[in-house]
Queue: 3 jobs
Job 1
Amino acid sequence: MGSPVTKAEAENSKRGMDAETFKLLREFIYEQTGITFQENQKYLLESRLASRLKEHKLATYADYVNYLRFDTYRDRELVSLYGLITTNETYFYRDQPQLDSFIKTVIPAVMEANKASRQIRIWSAACSSGDEPYTLALMLSDYAPLVNWNIEILATDISEPILKMASAGVYTAHALRHVPPHLKTRHFNAQGENFAISSTIKSRVKFMNLNLYDRPRLKLVRGIDIVFCRNCLIYFDEKAKHQIAIDIAGALKPNGYLIIGFSESLTKMSDVLRSQHIGRAVVYQKI
């Protein structure tokens, strides 16, 4: 941990980020992640990254941009940067209509397609603190027709710190407020004021660091039946979003399913993915 910044450094950092530095930082973040910060989000970046200036005893945000570009330990700093620029608010059983479509329609369709192998592979992209992939594992553990099936759940995120939190599997009562009581009793153990998820459920989820804008690494993910990529694409511009959607589609098996957030949509993808209404949710299926 770096020592406190000097008075001069503090005064400089208080002046905020000038327009040119903001432009350079926005471009750098976009090049690395595809995440877009709008013109009116300069203060947001300033507030989120102020701690990094203090950590490295840097006087200005321009110094921080140079640190990200040229310092020997820049790769380590990127881990911190990614954790600060991404939003990780989530909870178990979020957006229930989509989960209803998943368990009532998508899973039976995949079971029919995979009845010979009796295997289902699911990818929770941008999994944040693990609430989503653990929710899927809980739901599938409670689905009787899947007894003796092999279920693989891959959960990925760009932020290493949030993945460590997800791997620990400890959550507040607020995060678990929508978990069905019988599953909460069966698969969570009180740990002070929080709750730790059971080893049975934890063992069904594999966590991995993955930047959705890293095309070469995304090509390592293949043979997936169902992808959840919810409340993530809203952070990308149309160009980046289209690239990510194409690469996710590449990870899917033919007729595999992609589920995105309620507030998100995909355009210019009709030659790769077709949308269909299932209950109250829109789901995309690979052509």
Job 2
Amino acid sequence: MTTLKALALVCTLTPSPAVSSSHVLAEQVLSELDGHGVRGEAIRLVDLDVKPGVQADMGSGDAWPEVRRRVLGADILLLATPIWLGHPSSVAQRALERLDAELSETDENGKPLTYGKVATVAIVGNEDGAHKVSADLFQALNDCGFTIPAGGATYWVGEAMGSTDYKDLDGAPDSVASTTKTLASNAVHLANLLRDAPYPA
């Protein structure tokens, strides 16, 4: 059986090499997926020149076509974002806008190339809002052709007006670790099902 592949699009506003809470949680998800034999990689989008727009290729200098190639090469997509002002980051919004182009990019049977791919999310923040952000992301990802598994989100939010970030913790709290484990298990299960039984034309 072919090994499943996962890609994490990390939508932090923090450029490399600085530590990012979103990246830390994304790597924890990838580690859980690796335990199921899934090969994964993470891309920090803020490090790349992803042009604004809703086309698959926005022209000279656009880094999205290479990101898109990796998205289409993966079975499981993870979108990792911080919560800013109660919403996903602007980087996450740009990624979703670029993924919108997939609705007009179809195979020979007229199906979007994202059909059969699983999408999950990882969210960090210092205020409430993880459920609202996951709802926004899930709707957008589903609109773009991805399938969402049960328990497809993992998140951590610190106390209101607190100063501790996820990256500052000694490790994942038990509740986050358990949720991340469920996300990985269910995503792999669904990805295998969709690979064996694709959506009809």
Job 3
Amino acid sequence: MTAVTVRRLTPQDAPAYRVARRAALQADPAAFLTNAHEFAALTDDALAARLAPDAAGVTLGAFVDGELLGLLTLVRDTAPPLAHRVNVYGVSVTPQARGQGLGEALVRAGVDLARSWAGVTSLHLAVMDSQEAARRLYERCGFRVWGIQPDAVRRDGRVHAEHWMVLAC
């Protein structure tokens, strides 16, 4: 396995975040609800705000030799009845870096971070039925499918189901 460093991204990482996120959206458009065109329209300030210390989510980056090659975002529900839940979004590894352990390093770091937050009892995510490798990665990291939403997403003439997954903390 390649030496991977996972850390929280900051506003200074916004240019690298733009490149990595756009690459993910272009490589696997069916895996995400946002498309590359919509993402490209975001301003530099909007991207920096996503990575600010007071942002709604925490975005982790996986780096190899200083290059940002993977992403994962955690968002804790804020409504008091749901504040025990953390949602995992936007997990990606650039195509050229797949198979080197970056995805697993990101997911495990995200799980560890969420578990360190007081009151968190579970992590939740949804993975498209077209993303079998991603589902297997989440299962290796302890997530389990608890339900499938049929007809969840329609894109480019295709209908996708989502596998809803959970991990108890």
